Amino acid sequence: MNKLVSASILSADLLNLESEIRKLEKNSVDMIHFDVMDGIFVPNISYGIPVLESIDRLSPDLLLDVHLMITDPLKYIDKFFLAGADYITFHIESESNTAETIEAIRRTDAGIGIAIKPDTPAEAVFPYINDADMILVMTVEPGFGGQAFMDMSEKIRKIREYAESNRNNPASLRIEVDGGIDDKTAPIVKNAGADVLVSGSYLFRADDMEKAVSILRT
Ligand code: DX5
Ligand code: ZN
């Protein structure tokens, strides 16, 4: 399966979001990674539904990969779907019931993503291995862009191995990594079995974004 690059616009110039998104289209990123933070689940507040709607209107074809770092994601699944989300990823450490949140996403047309923080073990997602389209393994503590990468290779490998023997269609499971992904850390996570690479500061700081995208992808 091809590796996908999901650009985190947390590191974009938000005053010029339209031109930043055109730049992502031009450099053929696969998805826009949209980080939603509520100031409670994580110590930071970002942006939400109206901004997502605007991006979807601006770029209807680009896939929107929504990462919910919020306390009660279940309450907002339909709203994010209606605003244009193609993948909805919520944290297993949130206060929402995991099975109910999965069901709520399943009722939409969005892909189901389950995220785990660095201290959460791989085993936490095992009961949902057949429900998830994507598992997001955080490689930083969620909350801020530009942090140092934490090596979660062993966790990624464990999830891949578990999926191999317990998932109906193991090859269809995406494993996404998020935090500190750049030219040096991308090979580590790809070797471990990750296939969706989120990148914020590395992409937006690159002098040549096209080259940066292709380094992540290949
Ligand atoms: C952090 C966010 C990330 C962040 C990644 O909580 O979930 O998506 O924007 O940024 P970089 O690539 O700069 O680590
Ligand atoms: Zn994220």
Based on CA atoms alone, the radius of gyration comes out at 16 Å
The ligands bound in this entry are: D-xylitol-5-phosphate, zinc ion
The number of helical elements comes to: 8
So what's the overall shape?
globular
Question: What topology emerges from the helices and strands here?
Answer:
Elements: E1 4-8, H1 17-26, E2 31-37, H2 49-58, E3 63-69, H3 77-82, E4 87-91, H4 98-106, E5 111-116, E6 134-138, H5 153-166, E7 174-178, H6 186-192, E8 196-199, H7 201-205, H8 209-217
Parallel strand pairs: 1-2, 1-8, 2-3, 3-4, 4-5, 5-6, 6-7, 7-8
Helix pairs in contact: 5-6
Residues 8, 10-11, 33, 35, 67, 140, 142-147, 178-181, 198-202 line the site of D-xylitol-5-phosphate.
If you had to describe this structure to a student in words, what would you say it looks like?
An 8-stranded parallel beta barrel has the order 1-2-3-4-5-6-7-8. The protein has helices at 17-26, 49-58, 77-82, 98-106, 153-166, 186-192, 201-205, 209-217, and strands at residues 4-8, 31-37, 63-69, 87-91, 111-116, 134-138, 174-178, 196-199. Helix 5 runs parallel beside helix 6. It is of the alpha/beta class and 218 residues long. The mean pLDDT is 98. The termini are close together. It binds D-xylitol-5-phosphate and zinc ion. The site of zinc ion has 6 residues, from strand 2. Residues 8, 33, 35, 67, 178, 198 line the site of zinc ion (ZN).
